[in-house]
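Query structure, 66 tokens:
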């Protein structure tokens, strides 16, 4: 399984929501996940940034709701 799909599934996001967060369309998410086209470096950087923000939010929720 590709890194993009793993990231998306780890956050329980569908392709549309994941694409919105990263700034790409659902169809682009699908093409990247299927390996139809390679993930450009700038998109990978956006994904990494978005995943870091989502992880930070989860940690903050746990600390507040704890």
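Result returned for the query:
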């Amino acid at each position: 399984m590709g890194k993009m799909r793993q990231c998306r599934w780890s956050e329980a996001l569908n392709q549309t929501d994941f694409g919105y967060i990263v700034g790409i369309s659902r169809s682009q998410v699908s093409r990247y996940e299927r390996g139809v086209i390679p993930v450009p470096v700038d998109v990978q950087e956006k994904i990494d940034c978005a995943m870091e923000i989502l992880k930070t939010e989860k940690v903050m929720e746990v600390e507040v709701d704890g």
